[in-house]
Design goal:
globular; 12 helices; 9-stranded mixed beta sheet; 8-stranded parallel beta sheet; 390 residues; 17 strands; alpha/beta
């Protein structure tokens, strides 16, 4: 587990304006309001929520979410599951296909470890080969702990998963034929729908996903196999899966921090008002008063796969546009003809385009209590699963 460097330990108690830059900062008050709103939403709709820990990659945060009501966590890699398990998380679901023999053996051993601690490991499959390899890994590991297996169906993502219907039934039957595996239900996640900009587009996409999942469940149950759970959903569409009566579990994770990409979505009236809680603090290090300024947060400090960051919290007369300055620099331009450029040395806050890969760029997050203007550093959060790719 990653240790916290002394210079970060020394930052606890500092005012936000004294945090060195560039730095990933979590507004703890906003994050906790997001957790409370998600808890209330899941309770209101009587659905479980098992958030994606691949977003924050922190055992400390995962345990905080479980204390608030989360039923375990999703991850995408065996190594992510191992890192969180080392930090005390015992109910984990690898919501992704795993085919490599070594990775499957690690998963089988982890399943036994979690079972011994009163927990459970689950995994997704979308092929008979994957099922056979998983069963073999459990045999080689000598594990009778059992492992939950979700059959993944493609409900619109066009990534992993078999087509809804007979192909999913065949896989469910293949799972129950293996004594060390337990059929846990259906994985029905539509990631692409999370970022459709209009509420109408998202509603239509999830309506199709709900029908595919419901029809597949009906087919499997008609063959005599109960489907214990349909799991899926994300922050952008959770209102629809929760209201469907089909999905029993929500996997939304980005609600915790949010990002610039989610800020571009038209908001659903029924969706909880999740706030931006993850920021990159940066400083103006060079000024060209006739055209632009330069800050010290380049692409090494924030991911750009979903677009460039937003400059946060400035009044209209000081609004800025972030532009590509390379690995170490960001170029900031006036957002309008009347905008004024910031002074040399001024501190600014960026909202990254995509929270998940931004977190993965850092070993630690700086947790601030009391807001970005007058807050103080309360805690340093380890990113335990940073770089966990296998």
């Amino acid at each position: 587990m990653k240790s916290i460097p002394e210079h970060l330990r020394a930052a606890i108690g500092l005012r936000v304006d004294l945090i060195d830059t560039p730095a990933p900062v979590v507004d703890l008050d906003a994050m906790e309001r997001n957790i409370q709103r998600m808890t209330e939403f899941a309770h209101k709709h009587q659905v479980r929520w098992r958030p994606h820990a691949k977003m924050h990659k922190s055992a400390e945060i995962a345990l905080q979410l479980e204390k608030a009501g989360a039923r375990g966590h999703c991850v995408q890699k065996v190594s992510e599951a191992e890192a969180l398990a080392a930090g005390g998380v015992v109910n984990l679901y690898i919501s992704n296909e795993v085919l490599g023999a070594n990775k499957l053996l690690r998963a089988a051993r982890l399943a036994a470890q979690l079972a011994a601690r009163g927990g459970r490991l689950a995994i997704a499959v979308d092929s008979e080969e994957g099922i056979a390899r998983l069963a073999e890994a459990m045999r080689v590991a000598g594990s009778n702990a059992g492992i939950g297996v979700f059959v993944e169906i493609d409900v619109g993502q066009a990534r992993c998963g078999v087509p809804p219907g007979p192909a999913a039934l065949a896989l469910a039957q293949a799972v129950v034929a293996q004594p060390r595996l337990q059929f846990a239900g259906l994985q029905a996640y539509h990631g692409g729908a999370q970022h459709l900009r209009s509420a109408a587009e998202r509603r239509e996409a999830i309506a199709r996903a709900v029908k595919a999942a419901a029809d597949t469940r009906t087919l499997i149950e008609a063959a005599g196999l109960p489907v214990p759970l349909i799991t899926g959903s994300g922050t952008g569409t959770l209102v629809h899966e929760a209201a469907s009566g089909v999905y029993g579990e929500l996997q939304a994770g980005s609600f915790l921090f949010m990002d610039a990409d989610y800020a571009c979505n038209e908001r659903e009236n029924a969706q909880p008002l999740f706030e931006q809680a993850l920021f990159v603090k940066t400083q103006v290090i060079s000024v060209r008063e006739d055209s632009h300024v330069v800050c010290d947060a380049g692409h090494k400090s924030h991911a750009i796969d979903s677009g460039l960051p937003l400059v946060w919290g400035l009044p209209p007369e000081r609004a800025l546009r972030y532009a590509n300055g390379g690995d170490e620099h960001g170029i900031l331009y006036r957002a309008g003809p009347q905008s004024r450029l910031p002074a040399l040395g001024q501190m600014l806050w960026l909202v990254p385009g995509h929270c998940d890969p931004t977190v993965n760029l850092h070993n630690h997050l700086i947790g601030v209590r009391g807001g970005l203007l007058n807050g103080v550093v309360e805690r340093i959060i380890r990113v335990d699963a940073r770089g966990a790719l296998t």
